[in-house]
Specification:
The structure holds 2 protein chains of 2 kinds.
Chain A lengths: L1 H9 L5 E3 L2 E3 L3 E3 L22 E6 L12 E4 L2 E4 L8 H13 L5 E5 L4 H12 L6 E5 L3 E2 L5 E2 L4 H14 L4 E4 L7 H10 L4 E4 L3 E4 L1 E2 L4 E2 L5 E5 L4 H14 L4 E4 L5 H10 L3 E4 L2 H4 L3 H15 L12 H11 L3
Parallel strand pairs in A: 3-18, 4-7, 7-8, 8-11, 11-12, 12-17, 17-18
Antiparallel strand pairs in A: 1-2, 5-6, 6-16, 9-10, 13-16, 14-15
Helix pairs in contact in A: 3-4, 4-5, 5-6, 6-7, 7-9
Chain B lengths: L1 E14 L2 E7 L1 H4 L7 E5 L12 E4 L2 E3 L4 E7 L3 H7 L6 E8 L12 E6 L4 H14 L5 E7 L8 H6 L3 E6 L6 E2 L2 H10 L7 E5 L2 H14 L3 E4 L16 E4 L10 E4 L7 E3 L9
Parallel strand pairs in B: 8-9, 8-12, 9-10, 10-11, 12-13
Antiparallel strand pairs in B: 1-2, 1-7, 2-6, 3-4, 3-7, 5-6, 13-16, 14-15
Helix pairs in contact in B: 5-6
The chains are: A alpha/beta, B alpha/beta.
């Protein structure tokens, strides 16, 4: 009996194409929540994923922020890690060898403080074997604009993506910040600049105060909120972004279960990234993947693509037919 | 390290807000080294508030390596939920994690210094020393707290032949003052000159102990308690400032090191105490 179900489940087509990266299933890891893979390999088979997106990399190593770096809030986690990472060279020499043969495509999340830094990173990664794509973290402060993030204004994001696209041979996913006026404008401008896909949302800027000590709980005062607390906001933004662009949209934000992942897919996401949930259960990726397969099977859906953004037409019809 | 479900065997309050919880988890109990810890989830994995698992040291391995006993103090929401668990309830466990106390010869004598619930990892360490190394090694425990309620588990240590030096801030038990003052008094009088010192407790206490150890050139290891996001090395939330491993840069440069992976036990020489 169990065997029959397993065979049937395998027949569901979960594959999708994210801007030139063919992925076997829609479950990815979110940057900064899966280390460089080696930390998670004792718990989960790294070949499980549609893609592994590794901790953000800069040209030079970065120390990160002083502690306290994290604080738990209701159904959420605020972090201000400060983009601590080993730098490009150590990543390629020490971390990539395990990852590139792991059985899942590797997408490298990159960030810089100037457009030139982003471009140089993208160009160098283009010459390295075993990398399927690049995810641009545009929530990094732009040194030339006095620390204003690249991802806050559509025109800044456009310039950055355009320049990186010119330097990179690899497919580019732009990771959008939710801390903007209109997510549709941001998504459209990076699409126009040549981004092959968008992923969203990055963390929402947030703050927590210790009222006994009358001090901020994070050394950095402000951090980024993740976890189930932000999921409804993320679903709304994925819905809006998917309505505004034709490139693939990857949904991120507080996914804890397969039901959460399906919600993002119905809203218009071709794939999802699991973030904070990895901290709680390092096997969560496999559980979400199995849940998605079972869901599709039990609803007699042959292909995942049949339900991507499937409510769009329905809502139009519903509204048209209503007397409101 | 493994991810397992443990069954609560008992969960009893042994002193005001201090609890001992026995957990059946035979899959992992046999591989624990002294000073290692577990990430524990005392609530369902579909409940997200509180969101994160919590780190706990192992007080001792129970039965024929069939489970662990955890000593904890109720300080917040997570531990309050934990304190309400009963026999036959389930907890999620990931572990054993981190690098524990160094495993080598401990010389002629060991002094363990603990504050409050920081006493927790030392019982398993002492058991291990008694079983694996030397039954007769003189071990002294300097244990401090604010009052009588913090003087937990003392009889367990006495039964293993540990000399106890208690201190309380209110003077209700033993030396009146901080545990570090009690230790300093003995070190200055040369009442003791341990070959090794091990400490676990609040960061301010660890810093005092570390400075004494460095001054007197006594090898010293501290177990650092840190807020952890994941406990398995991915979130980088639990870091402490350490000297660069590259010795030529060790005095001028520092790096942030994960307590969960490279710790929780650190050589005091590796930590930048002035920045802690």
């Amino acid at each position: 009996m169990g065997k029959t179900i397993e065979t049937d489940v395998k027949m569901v087509d979960l594959s999708t194409n994210i801007g030139g990266v063919v992925i076997k299933n829609p479950v990815m890891t979110a940057s900064g929540t899966f280390g460089y893979g080696e930390e998670m390999s004792p718990y989960i088979d790294l070949s499980t994923f549609g893609a592994i997106i590794v901790k953000g990399i800069s040209l030079k190593p970065r120390k990160g922020n002083p502690a306290p770096r994290i604080v738990e809030t209701p159904s959420g986690l605020i972090n201000a890690i400060g983009l601590q990472n080993v730098g490009l060279d150590a990543f390629v020499d020490e971390k990539l060898p395990l990852l590139k043969d792991c059985g899942s495509p590797v997408i490298v999340n990159i960030f810089g403080e100037t457009i030139d830094e982003y471009c140089l990173l993208a160009e160098k990664l283009g010459h390295v074997d075993g990398i399927a794509g690049i995810e641009l973290n545009i929530s990094c402060p732009n040194v030339k604009k006095g620390g204003m993030e690249f991802g806050r204004q559509p025109e800044d994001a456009y310039r950055l993506v355009r320049a990186v696209k010119h330097s990179a041979k690899l497919p580019i996913i732009t990771k959008l910040s939710p801390n903007v006026g209109d997510i549709r404008e941001m998504a459209s401008s990076v699409e126009e600049a040549g981004s092959d896909a968008v992923s969203l949302i990055n963390t929402i800027t947030a703050m927590s105060i210790d009222i006994e000590k009358r001090r901020p709980r994070l050394f950095n005062v402000i951090g980024g909120l993740s976890g189930p607390a932000i999921r409804p906001i993320a679903v709304r933004m994925v819905w809006e972004a998917a309505g505004a662009v034709d490139i693939p949209v990857i949904g991120i934000g507080g996914i804890m279960t397969y039901e959460d992942a399906i919600e993002f897919i119905i809203a218009g996401a071709c794939a999802v990234q699991i973030g904070t949930a990895n901290f709680i259960d390092p096997t969560i990726g496999l559980k979400v993947l199995k849940g998605i397969k079972t869901y599709l099977k039990s609803h007699s859906i042959q292909r995942l693509s049949d339900i991507i953004g499937c409510i769009r037409g329905q809502i139009y019809t519903l509204h048209k037919n209503s007397n409101l | 390290m493994k991810q397992v479900i443990g069954k609560v065997l008992y969960n009893s309050e042994i002193s005001q807000s201090y609890f001992k919880m026995g957990i059946a988890c035979s899959d992992v109990a046999s591989s624990i080294l002294p000073g290692q810890f577990f990430m524990l989830r005392a609530w369902s994995d579909t409940e997200y508030d509180p969101l994160l698992n919590r780190p706990f040291g192992v007080y001792r391995v129970i039965g024929e390596e069939e489970g662990v006993e955890i000593l904890y103090r109720v300080v917040g929401r997570g531990t309050r939920i934990m304190s309400q668990l009963r026999h036959r309830d389930f907890v999620g466990l990931i572990g054993p994690l981190g690098k524990g106390f160094p495993i080598y010869e401990y010389g002629d004598s060991v002094a363990m210094i603990s504050g409050g619930v920081g006493i927790a990892p030392f019982y398993f360490f002492t058991q291990w020393i008694r079983n694996k190394k030397s039954y007769n090694l003189p071990i002294t425990l300097y244990h401090g707290g604010s009052g009588m309620d913090d003087m937990v588990c003392i009889e367990d240590f006495e039964a293993l032949g540990v000399e106890i030096k208690s201190s309380t801030e209110d003077g209700s038990v033993g030396f009146k003052g901080y545990v570090t003052d009690n230790l300093r008094k003995d070190l200055e009088k040369k009442n003791i000159m341990p070959s090794f010192m091990l400490a676990c407790g609040p960061k301010a206490m660890l810093k005092e102990v570390a400075l004494m150890a460095l001054k007197d050139d006594i090898p010293c290891f501290v177990s650092i308690d840190s807020v952890m996001g994941c406990g398995i090395g991915t979130c980088l939330g639990c870091v402490v400032k350490t000297r660069k491993k590259d010795k030529s840069k060790a005095d001028t440069e520092f790096e942030y090191t994960r307590v969960c992976m490279e710790g929780p036990v650190f050589d005091v020489k590796d930590i930048l105490w002035e920045k802690l």
